[in-house]
Amino acid sequence: MDTMTTQTATTRPQASSSPSGEYLAIALMYFAQGVPIGLAFNALGAMIRHGGHSVAAVGLTGLAFLPWALKFLWSGPVENACARWGMPRFLWSTQAMIVATCLVMIPFPPSASLYTVIALIVLLNLLCATQDIVTNSYAVLRFQGRRAGAANAIQIAGFIGGMLIGGGGLLQVYSSLGWTVTMLILAILMAVVYLPLLLIPGWRNTAAATTATASRVRLRDLAKHRDLGWALLLALSFKFAGTAVSTLAQPWLLDKGFDLEQIGRLQMSNLVFVAIGGACIGIPLLRYAGNRRAVLVAMILSGLLMGTAWMLQFLGAFSSMALYAAFALQSLFEGAMFVTIWALFMNWSSKDRPGTDFTVMQCCEGFGNAIAAGMIGGLGQAYGYGDAFAIAWASAAGVLLITAICLPRLQLVDK
């Protein structure tokens, strides 16, 4: 037996953290990784524009997406490092670098140092995307099977919470107190967010003992999954219709007369209802229907509601209350779909390379989102909002067909 495997086998019996402690741990970890995403995509653009730069300069924030799209490339070395040093040491080391990066950003406001702050934001997201690989590995190994649904609901809620704080929360601080105080608060937040892990009985031993069973994790070993092609196809396609609708909805609402503040509040409302739907619909659905059937049911229900924007466009005039209610309902079932699909990918991932397998599925989702966002803009320009929303809604039927074909071909830990 390989030395690394032997060490893993001998340390596993020491793991003794409680289930509630493990749920709290992934909530904190995913929350921490959601904060820089929220800062980059929901706050930084407004900060750049407020600093006097052009709208074109706002597009530079897209560079922060690259680490999240490409993190699968270094997922194997990260898992190997965790097996060598233990997850707690790796997490706290990278967290120290994250806090240091936040402190370094203090003297570089976007108004005076645009390219420097963009580079530092990309570095911040690179560090957090790397941490996300570790969190994925921990989540897969600790929660595969019947606990996967609850774990993924907590993952989604934690990540959304981080995005809300990093986006709207920090933007409010910035508007009132300026860049220096905002970055100082961010550094303090990132410094304390992992401290509760020290208070969870046995968590350090549990995390240190939770490593891949393979002696060495390599990206090319992903090909050992005979059903890899079906998993990749499902990961690329499952969010296509939802991304297309949400991307087109932003300019559509602007043209309907809504301002940026109203659209921002709607987005925050939608995120909250996604988290609620994941917990209140997704988890019971997994419990009573099983993973495959739960995915199919959630996909059907969310697909039917992808026509929300088309129906509002067809009506012509609608109130803010109707808008909020319609998208809240759509978001509830999207949240249920997210929990069921990520529970599926968690139960699909191999214990030999859990972080790598799960991370590859996340990156595929990101690439699928990029394709959907790129296509729907051209369709909206060419055919108008009504027809573009109708095409996006129709694509949900295609996604459902792909899902129905892929599901029976996937090999899961918990069938």
TrEMBL record:
<feature type="transmembrane region" description="Helical">
    <location>
        <begin position="321"/>
        <end position="345"/>
    </location>
</feature>
<keyword id="KW-1133">Transmembrane helix</keyword>
<feature type="transmembrane region" description="Helical">
    <location>
        <begin position="228"/>
        <end position="249"/>
    </location>
</feature>
<keyword id="KW-0812">Transmembrane</keyword>
<feature type="transmembrane region" description="Helical">
    <location>
        <begin position="177"/>
        <end position="200"/>
    </location>
</feature>
<feature type="transmembrane region" description="Helical">
    <location>
        <begin position="21"/>
        <end position="44"/>
    </location>
</feature>
<feature type="transmembrane region" description="Helical">
    <location>
        <begin position="50"/>
        <end position="70"/>
    </location>
</feature>
<feature type="transmembrane region" description="Helical">
    <location>
        <begin position="295"/>
        <end position="315"/>
    </location>
</feature>
<dbReference type="Pfam" id="PF07690">
    <property type="entry name" value="MFS_1"/>
</dbReference>
<protein>
    <recommendedName>
        <fullName>MFS transporter</fullName>
    </recommendedName>
</protein>
<feature type="transmembrane region" description="Helical">
    <location>
        <begin position="390"/>
        <end position="410"/>
    </location>
</feature>
<keyword id="KW-0472">Membrane</keyword>
<feature type="transmembrane region" description="Helical">
    <location>
        <begin position="366"/>
        <end position="384"/>
    </location>
</feature>
<feature type="transmembrane region" description="Helical">
    <location>
        <begin position="90"/>
        <end position="108"/>
    </location>
</feature>
<feature type="transmembrane region" description="Helical">
    <location>
        <begin position="153"/>
        <end position="171"/>
    </location>
</feature>
<dbReference type="InterPro" id="IPR036259">
    <property type="entry name" value="MFS_trans_sf"/>
</dbReference>
<dbReference type="InterPro" id="IPR011701">
    <property type="entry name" value="MFS"/>
</dbReference>
<dbReference type="GO" id="GO:0022857">
    <property type="term" value="F:transmembrane transporter activity"/>
</dbReference>
<feature type="transmembrane region" description="Helical">
    <location>
        <begin position="269"/>
        <end position="288"/>
    </location>
</feature>
<dbReference type="InterPro" id="IPR004752">
    <property type="entry name" value="AmpG_permease/AT-1"/>
</dbReference>
<keyword id="KW-0813">Transport</keyword>
<dbReference type="GO" id="GO:0016020">
    <property type="term" value="C:membrane"/>
</dbReference>
